[in-house]
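Students often ask why we bother encoding 3D structure as a string. The short answer is that it lets us treat folding as translation between two languages. Here is a chain of 242 residues written in the first language.
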Amino acid sequence: MIIEICANSFESAQIAQLAGANRIELCPELSVGGLTPSHGLIEKVVSGLNIPTHILIRPRSGNFTYSDDEFDVMLRDIAFCKKMGCAGIVSGFLTSENKIDSNKTKQLIDACVGMEFTFHRAFDWVENPIEELQKLIDLKVNRLLSSGQKPTAIEGISLLKELQNLSKGEIEIMPGGGINLENALNFKEAGFKSIHLSATTKKQILNQKPKVSMHSDAFFEEGIVAVSDSEKIQNIIKILHR
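And here it is in the second language, the structure alphabet:
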């Protein structure tokens, strides 16, 4: 069974390789579901390690419906990953109605020629998973990463098994989300070929809690995207230039 580790740093990627994992998905900022890693991190992992590396292409948190400018950034990041020799890309694009955007997803896949393409857990937001699965099959996506539309894959294992049966081997279904030592065997027994997990442990880095937090709860609301406000900027400039 293939063990894919969701690695948020070079250290995590290196640990995954030394521990015997088969593959990594490189994606920092796990607290928001993962974001595209920096070019520097991608280059260091791919050049410094031997483990097959798939890169998450997600320019921001909040949702999976992106502007034209954000989509352009995604394509540029994919081009860099191809140049670096990455093994695969993990990405996806939804419409504002939370359906798979076949046109945009196809463009992502076309940009990934020579690399594998995994459609990520944006799938867990779609209304009709059976219908949407067929879209991915038609697009010839290599793999679907999903928790079975539940908070954890073990809770969603029934849907995951249904998707696997319906896929008939045309797309790999890879369970991911809350997989751990206690439940990993369930997925092997259910016939899945791979699982996706972070296997993280928390390390205390600072000796004491900082006086000022750099985390803001205002930016952690699902579906909310923060963007600079032109009027606010202009008003501040006016005040300062009086």
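Translate back mentally: The chain has a mean pLDDT of 94. Keep this in mind for the problem set.
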